[in-house]
Each structure stands twice: as structure tokens, then as C-alpha cells.
Design a protein that fits this description.
With 238 residues, the chain is an alpha+beta fold. The protein folds into two domains: 3-108, DNA polymerase, domain 1, CATH 1.10.150.20; 113-230, Cytidine Deaminase, domain 2 (3-Layer(aba) Sandwich), CATH 3.40.140.10. It contains ten helices and five strands; from the N terminus they run ααααααααββαβαββ. A five-stranded mixed β-sheet has the order 2-1-3-4-5, with helices on both faces. Helix 3 (39-47) packs across helix 4 (56-67) and helix 4 (56-67) packs across helix 5 (69-75).
Length: 238
């Protein structure tokens, strides 16, 4: 008997296949549909295996609890997620791909467009910016009901008034007949504290939006580990 097979027999509950048939998440999904599965069960289907002493369902539950349920897990940077016990690079990549597909489906489905109710909603849609190594500015394009029409990258590099062209920033909003936009840029340092330049450029963009009859609803600074700052809430540039 090989060492791998012997270890599998010693710890039989570490894989979904070792669970009772009617308790396996995949089989429950096939029989009852995905809607009846808990977050932990759906996550377990993606993770497939746990680690020594912890089966995949327990690993999934631990991961959700540790990261702040699904919204928190979706914001965990790849490098941090890949170092969590029981995850590793491959599983971290699969989880990030899954969450990104979910974001793209939400943006691509006209009948199910996400609606922005708060700065946190916008930050969630833009959470992948926390993993960028360069500073980047994006816009969320909104209709009259604050539903997301799309998002656009408008600049890459240091964000300040001398290089960001205001006309280019509103180009996609005009093309899609957006009535409002939410600005966002990331701080690769991980600290989302707004700089004086952030407030200055926000003032210029808000003025330009008024001339174009496009409301600038907020400007978010995205940091690491799900942290962000709303300049609108802090009264900076608005």
C-alpha cells in the first residue's frame, strides 16, 4: 500500500467522496438544486478537499467565518488567501476566478443589474482593485436608479490633476447615456487614506460632471483587505 493511500484510509473524512452519499454537496446540488445548499456546501464543491483532521465542509465553514462570510472572502487578496491553511495557490486561484465570473455575470445581465445603495456596494464590485500593483482609476456607470450599466478603466498610473484628462474620464459615461458615475482608484500601498491630490481631482471632476449633467456620486479609495474610504462621506471634494 502506498503512503498516499494509507493516509487516505487513516483520515477518510477529508474528501467529499468519503462523506455519506446523501450528505455530499455535489449530490445534494444534483438532486435538489444549488439554491438549497449553504454557503459552506457550495464552497466545499469548489475546494473539494480539506486537510489533515479537518474535512472540506469544516474547512469551508472556517474560511467563511474567518474572512467575514462571502463578501469578505471575495475581497481577500490572492496572496493572502493562498497562504491560508488548507487553501494554497491552486484553490486561491479557483476562488478568485469564481468571484470574478460572478461579478462579470452581474454586470453583463441587463435584467439583473446590480444597484448601488451605499459606498460598500460600489467597493464590493471594485474589490479586485485591491490586488493591483499599479495605481488605477475606474468608473462605475449608473442609470437614474443607480443600477450599474458598466465599468471602465480610465487611467493607469499616479492619479493627479496634471495627467488625468477629465474628458476621457466621462467618455464611456456619455457613450452609455449614464446619468451618474462613481469614481474609484486604488492605493497599492494598501492604505486607503485619501491624499490632498485625491480631494483636488475630485473637485475638478465634480465640476465637469455638473457641466455634462452627469452626477459624480462618490469617489472611493480602495486599500488592502477590504478597506476603502468614501471621499463623499468625508466631505472631500464634494
Amino acid at each position: 500500500m502506498t503512503r498516499t493511500r494509507r493516509a487516505a484510509r487513516e483520515h477518510p473524512a477529508h474528501t467529499i467522496q468519503a462523506m455519506q452519499h446523501n450528505e455530499r454537496p455535489r449530490e445534494r446540488l444534483q438532486q435538489f438544486g444549488a439554491g438549497v445548499l449553504s454557503d459552506a456546501e457550495l464552497l466545499a464543491i469548489l475546494l473539494r478537499t480539506g486537510y489533515k483532521g479537518v474535512n472540506v465542509i469544516d474547512l469551508s465553514a472556517e474560511l467563511l467565518e474567518q474572512c467575514g462570510r462571502l463578501p469578505g472572502l471575495a475581497r481577500v487578496p490572492y496572496n493572502e488567501l493562498s497562504h491560508l491553511k488548507g487553501i494554497g495557490p491552486a484553490k486561491a486561484a479557483e476562488l478568485h476566478a469564481c468571484f470574478e465570473l460572478g461579478r462579470r455575470v452581474a454586470l453583463a445581465s441587463p435584467e439583473e443589474k446590480p444597484r448601488i445603495h451605499s459606498p460598500a456596494d460600489a467597493a464590493q464590485l471594485l474589490s479586485d482593485m485591491a490586488r493591483l500593483e499599479q495605481e488605477e482609476m475606474r468608473t462605475l456607470l449608473l442609470d437614474t436608479k443607480n443600477r450599474v450599466l458598466g465599468r471602465a478603466r480610465v487611467y493607469q498610473g499616479s492619479v493627479h490633476t496634471t495627467v488625468v484628462r477629465i474628458g476621457e474620464l466621462f467618455r464611456d459615461a456619455v457613450r452609455q447615456n449614464a446619468t451618474g458615475i462613481i469614481l474609484a482608484h486604488n492605493h497599492p500601498s494598501g492604505d486607503p487614506t485619501p491624499s490632498p491630490e485625491d480631494a483636488a481631482i475630485t473637485r475638478e471632476i465634480v465640476k465637469a460632471g455638473q457641466l455634462l449633467d452627469i452626477d459624480v456620486l462618490d469617489h472611493l479609495v480602495i486599500g488592502a483587505q477590504g478597506k476603502f474610504v468614501s471621499l463623499k462621506e468625508r466631505g472631500l471634494g464634494f
